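A reminder from the course coordinator: this example appears on the midterm review sheet, so study it carefully.

Given structure:
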């Protein structure tokens, strides 16, 4: 892996790829995974995940096409 954060990104994106996750669930699990390796922020900056609002469910986090491509290359 070329970037030391990639292993954690693979974990995060793979977890979300299994099923769309509620935003609060993602924040509880990943936002503060490590202060020096902000995985959530990096996944967003790279466009690997996105947030959308789903009626009746609220904010949802899902994997983007770029995120699926990222996983397929790992």
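Designed residues:
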């Amino acid at each position: 892996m070329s970037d030391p954060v990639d292993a954690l990104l693979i974990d995060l994106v793979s977890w979300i790829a299994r099923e769309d996750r509620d935003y609060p669930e993602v924040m509880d699990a990943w936002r503060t995974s490590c202060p020096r390796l902000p995985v959530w922020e990096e996944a967003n900056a790279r466009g690997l995940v996105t947030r959308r609002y789903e009626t009746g469910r609220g904010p949802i986090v899902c994997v983007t096409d770029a995120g699926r491509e990222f996983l397929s290359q790992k």
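The CA atoms of residues 2 and 56 lie 40 Å apart. The chain has a mean pLDDT of 87.
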